[in-house]
Amino acid sequence: MDYDIAIIGLGPAGSTLARLLSSSFKVIALDTKHEVGNEGFHKPCGGLLANDAQKAFIRQKLNLPKDILTDPQIFSVKTIDLQTQIVRNYQRSYVNFDRHKFDLWLKSLIPSNVTVLHNTLCKEVRRIIDGYQITYLDKNKKEHNTTAKYVVGADGANSLVRRMRYPQHTIRQYVAIQQWFTEQHPAPFYSCIFDNKSTNCYAWSISKDGYFILGGAFPKKIANQNFEKLKEKLSTQGFIFGEPVKTEKCLVVYPNRLRDFYTGNENIFLIGEAAGFISASSLEGISYALDSAEILSKILNSGHPKPNKCYYQRTIPLRFKLYSKIVKAKLLTTPLWRKLIMKSKIQHIE
Ligand SMILES: Cc1cc2nc3c(=O)[nH]c(=O)nc-3n(C[C@H](O)[C@H](O)[C@H](O)COP(=O)(O)OP(=O)(O)OC[C@H]3O[C@@H](n4cnc5c(N)ncnc54)[C@H](O)[C@@H]3O)c2cc1C
């Protein structure tokens, strides 16, 4: 084997794992993003760091550099139910940040003993005796092969590792759309929007560094039409859009059952969104990416004889926490429950 461990994807999950693995391993990590700058792949994201993600950074003794932060910082969430027209403001303690800078910063913390291939696309992961052969295209689109004993799928919502190795473990996917506008509201704000009747979506808006971002996750077939419909509806609620500066789109996993969370087998491990680890009620996923990477790093560093079984067992609490978000999402898409929750004194709805 060329390497002990191959990590596919360096989002929050893959970068965290690469940083926390023992230096005694020979590790290679492939990622489609460039090493620095604004070129190449950008992950569409609201760029809000929730409490649980902040806690993961506390455990890992990391603080965010100032240049990653964006304006304003957010502690008030305007929650809007378009069906019942109920509006409530809730307290949250998000950190508002630039997602691309955040991803590049996490990548920059990977120690130099890890071989990092930027601007590189993994094409295939094939089983061979004692491990896996990984085929990838380098930045000049030239094809190469390498081998590793363990493979970690940290390649996000549309994980190639999950699709190729576990085609039977499919997971529901939605299309997430975010449109950026020049901010024109008199005061910047953050909102989360429920509209499961006409556009069947969970949506949000965020003010960020002079821009106003509208985002939403929609069932695949009618995503574009529903996004436009949502914009029309919100225009009547005081939202100001104008001409979009940019539009971003990507798949997002939307777990629906406990078995949607799949952690891999036979020396392949899925972490972060590739494993289905994302909240079905708020699409918050960074904390689960950080947590699953941390759990896997401890297991691999300890030299556990059955790492797949151990990773499955140690992620049981995480999977049950995420299952509670599925239940919460089902309640929130039931108009009567949502109305009751929003009229009650419950402090966290989304
Ligand atoms: C529109 C939107 C808004 C969101 N907003 C928030 C938010 O505000 N807060 C929050 O906590 N969560 C948010 N999420 C969820 C969050 O972005 C994800 O859950 C999180 O990014 C998952 O991290 P990850 O490392 O598992 O995967 P990703 O961040 O998706 O990283 C995967 C990496 O793998 C690389 N990759 C993929 N395929 C390959 C390949 N074949 N070869 C090589 N590299 C590959 C990509 O370059 C990428 O960098 C949002 C999601 C969406 C879609």
TrEMBL record:
Transmembrane segments: none annotated. SUPFAM superfamilies: FAD/NAD(P)-binding domain. This is Dehydrogenase (Flavoprotein).
